[in-house]
């Protein structure tokens, strides 16, 4: 792992009243990207706390959480992509006490699910969206897309659709397969790539999950 740049903000030095952060526009952009990442992690932590305390509705939480998850991978790539540092290390350096955000952004990758008893019309829409997300994800893998920041949003969208389906069992195979890959990708940096073997395995797992999903629909 690369060491942090020598001119990184002295986050732990509380004795200085003013810190000269940058000497050029390039350095300024670096610190702005770091600030964006810090802000997104902090915002996610506050959102998770608010949801846990019933301070916001499910729909408000889901909408904002999806937005933050989407923005996170972009901000992570911009801030840390060139120096080899992980988000976990970044959070340690800046003493970020954000366990809920770390779990949501680095492990889960999707908002907290809530099963609903939607009407048949909404279920039909959800099924159609799920099918489309399966096809989009499998096509991406077949076309040799291997970058984390390309695959993670596709699997996140698929997972979001799957968890909206009513009456699926807790151990529903497609959910477990997609969740496994989301956790793997979320543990990687946005600029990382899965290798060819992982790509073949991901396609196989998506194909298997789609087949099980189709069997589930036919049984209803």
Kindly describe this structure.
The protein is mainly α and 220 residues long. The chain folds into two domains: 25-108, de novo design (two linked rop proteins) (Up-down Bundle); 120-218, Vps28 C-terminal domain (Four Helix Bundle (Hemerythrin (Met), subunit A)). It has eight helices and no strands. It has helices spanning 25-52, 58-80, 87-93, 99-108, 120-142, 148-162, 173-186, 196-218. Helix 1 crosses helix 4, helix 4 crosses helix 7 and helix 5 (120-142) packs antiparallel against helix 6 (148-162). The longest helix is centred in the N-terminal third of the chain and has 28 residues, at 25-52. The protein starts with 24 loop residues before the first helix and ends with a helix. The mean pLDDT is 85.
Lay out the secondary structure.
Blueprint: H1 25-52, H2 58-80, H3 87-93, H4 99-108, H5 120-142, H6 148-162, H7 173-186, H8 196-218
Helix pairs in contact: 1-2, 1-4, 4-7, 5-6, 5-8, 6-7, 7-8
């Amino acid at each position: 792992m690369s060491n942090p740049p020598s001119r990184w903000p002295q986050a732990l030095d509380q004795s200085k009243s003013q810190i000269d952060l940058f000497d050029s526009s390039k350095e300024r952009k670096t610190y702005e990207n770091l600030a964006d990442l810090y802000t997104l992690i902090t915002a996610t932590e506050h959102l998770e706390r608010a949801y846990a305390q019933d301070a916001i509705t499910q729909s408000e939480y889901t909408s904002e959480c999806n937005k933050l998850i989407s923005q996170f991978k972009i901000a992570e790539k911009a801030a840390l992509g060139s120096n080899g540092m992980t988000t976990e290390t970044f959070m340690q350096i800046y003493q970020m006490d954000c366990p809920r955000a770390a779990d949501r952004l680095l492990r889960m990758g999707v908002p907290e699910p809530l099963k609903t008893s939607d009407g048949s019309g909404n279920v039909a829409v959800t099924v159609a969206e799920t099918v489309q997300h399966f096809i989009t994800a499998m096509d991406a893998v077949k076309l040799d897309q291997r970058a984390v920041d390309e695959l993670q949003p596709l699997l996140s969208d698929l997972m979001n659709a799957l968890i909206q389906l009513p009456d699926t069992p807790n151990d529903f195979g497609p959910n477990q397969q997609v969740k496994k890959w989301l956790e793997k990708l979320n543990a990687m940096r946005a600029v990382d790539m899965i290798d060819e073997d992982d790509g073949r395995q991901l396609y196989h797992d998506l194909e298997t999950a789609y087949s099980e999903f189709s069997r589930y629909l036919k049984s209803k």
